[in-house]
């Protein structure tokens, strides 16, 4: 197959599903919001994981007084699934959508509330998009929290490692969940449960219920996304807000199972710390590496403690 380096414009209108969640009691500040973007293999329920209440980041954020907005990326969940999953549903399209949603939050076009301060919070490919927003539209966000992320190309010369997922056609792996009327063959999922576990989990630090629900609700990723996911990243030369990276110590896609595996003479103490090179003007850069945690941070036993650490950063970023 020949791949053309030429660019093409994508112009269309898509139906996307999102959820704005405001605290039941009262927000710390009604004009502050966390903007949540999920990664490959999930939809926005990654942030409101239903295995049990303590796995829900949305609930933890609401309890701490923060409004959140999350949405199903194009091709996942309740959002539209275009038939061209190679040329259309790829990272530049996703980035354009992500920037537009951030602008809508600023302008009060979601929930009728203008948000003066917005923290972009991503997971995995969602973090890649948040990072890309800070590089391409730096005024869209006031702070960035990149979960399940590293700039590992600075250390290894490679992008995220996802080959262990043995990605296969979604309609063949889950014929009871996805039909050929809905998805073309370029929509992919991990081939078997063991492949999903290899990429996303660190045994035995997760419950069977959490893993089984993750597998039962796994969302397809397009060939376009898988082939282009880091192409949108860049040095955020104009972004001055605080940046926090939260990556599990045993993350496979971004750390190859050991986030401290850097050379003896390395410039930084961990692989995630190299992301600092993407932010030459940040007001504050920090890294947190939770132990006994794989790539799907929110699905591990450590999640409740990780959430409190994340929310501490949110507090400081929005002071």
TrEMBL record:
InterPro entries: AB_hydrolase_1, AB_hydrolase_fold
Lineage: Eukaryota, Fungi, Dikarya, Basidiomycota, Agaricomycotina
Ranges of residues in domain AB hydrolase-1: 36-303
Keyword Flavoprotein: no
Organism for this UniProt entry: Daedalea quercina L-15889
Name of the protein this chain belongs to: Alpha/beta-hydrolase
GO molecular function, one term: hydrolase activity
Annotated keywords: Hydrolase
Keyword Hydrolase: yes
């Amino acid at each position: 197959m020949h791949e053309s380096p030429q660019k093409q414009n994508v112009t269309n209108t898509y139906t996307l599903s999102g959820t704005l969640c405001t605290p039941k009691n009262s927000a710390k500040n009604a004009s502050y919001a966390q903007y949540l973007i999920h990664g490959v293999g999930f939809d926005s329920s990654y942030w409101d994981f239903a295995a049990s209440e303590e796995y829900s980041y949305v609930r933890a954020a609401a309890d701490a007084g923060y409004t959140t907005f999350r949405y199903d990326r194009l091709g996942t969940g309740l959002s539209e699934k275009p038939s061209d999953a190679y040329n259309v549903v790829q990272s530049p399209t996703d980035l354009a959508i992500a920037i537009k949603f951030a602008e809508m939050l600023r302008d009060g076009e979601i929930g009728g509330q203008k948000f003066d301060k917005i923290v972009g919070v991503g997971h995995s490919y969602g973090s890649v998009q948040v990072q890309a927003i800070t590089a391409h539209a730096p005024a869209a966000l006031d702070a960035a929290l990149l979960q399940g992320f590293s700039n590992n190309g600075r250390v290894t010369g490679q992008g995220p490692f996802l080959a262990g997922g043995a990605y296969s056609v979604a309609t063949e792996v889950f014929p009871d969940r996805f039909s050929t009327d809905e998805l073309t063959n370029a929509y992919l999922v991990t081939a078997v449960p063991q492949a999903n576990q290899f990429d996303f989990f660190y045994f035995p630090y997760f419950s069977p219920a959490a893993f089984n629900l993750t597998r039962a609700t796994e969302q397809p990723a397009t060939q376009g996304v898988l082939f282009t996911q880091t192409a949108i990243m860049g040095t955020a030369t104009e972004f001055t807000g605080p940046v926090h990276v939260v990556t599990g110590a045993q993350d496979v896609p971004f750390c190859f199972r050991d986030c401290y595996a850097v050379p003896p003479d390395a410039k930084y103490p961990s692989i995630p710390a190299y992301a600092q090179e993407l932010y030459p003007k940040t007001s504050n850069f920090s890294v947190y590496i939770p132990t006994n945690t794989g790539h799907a941070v929110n699905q591990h036993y450590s999640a409740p403690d990780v959430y409190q650490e994340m929310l501490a950063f949110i507090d400081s970023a929005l002071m």
